[in-house]
Amino acid sequence: MQKGGVITFPTDTVYGLGADAFNSVAVERIYEIKNRPKYQQFPLLIADVKQLTILAEPIPEITWLLARRFWPGGLTLVLSKKDSVPAYLASGPTIAVRVPNHPVCQALIQHLGNPLIGTSANISGQPAALTAEEVEQQLGDKIDLIINGSKCPGGKESTIVDITHEPPTILRHGIIPSHEITELIRNTWRQNAAHCYRL
Fold first, then answer.
1. What are 33-75's pLDDT values in tens digits?
2. Which CATH class is domain 7-198?
């Protein structure tokens, strides 16, 4: 990946297709491999919440609360992207970020030192791969490496929450129950309101 390679790897949901997010040539390859339209940007995988500061600005307080509660795990947050984020990663004003709950993903991101493109390892419109064999069937020699980490659990996709608006909006219902997210947001708003009233 440090040389622009594109690999597949197991995640806490399905097999992922990834590369160094700050390598434009590698990102272009992923679009071609998946046959994915350019207007559909890829989510990014980061090792921990600290890496948010290189991707997003401003970062609302609710971000840290949601991250503390649900990361690592199946929660994708949509934030306002930082001006320094390359346009090939996000042509619009926002960027989607997640901290995966899988040791292989964590090791890859930490050793790479950059966020990782984190999209499903399949041709767009085809079933997501749950095993290395299924990755091989769909992508074959289009990729540089397959990390065989046994079968992924599959199931629901990550829950996506847009926190660029107030209140935050759930864009996709997924593995994190929506009521848990709305309850945390509601309690936060109540606490803030009570604090302002006291002031």
1. 999 998 899 999 999 999 999 999 999 999 999 999 999 999 9
2. alpha beta
How far apart are the C-alpha atoms of 156 and 173, rounded to whole Å?
A: 9
Q: β-strand 116-117 against 44-45: which pairing, if any?
A: antiparallel
Q: Give the residue extent of every domain in the chain.
A: 7-198
Residue 32 structure tokens: 């071609």
Q: What is the pTM of this model?
A: 0.91
Amino acid at 147: I
The 3-class SS string of 50-101 reads: HHHHHCECCCCHHHHHHHHHHCCCCEEEEEEECCCCCCCCCCCCEEEEECCC
Residue in this structure with the two tokens 């050793």, named with its chain if needed: 111
Tell me the two tokens of residue 67: 């991250």
Three-class HEC string of 128-191 = CCCCHHHHHHHHHHHCCEECCCCCCCCCCCCEEEECCCCCCEEEECCCCCHHHHHHHHHHHHHH
Of the candidates 42, 47, 60, 65, the residue with the CA atom closest to the CA atom of residue 187: 65
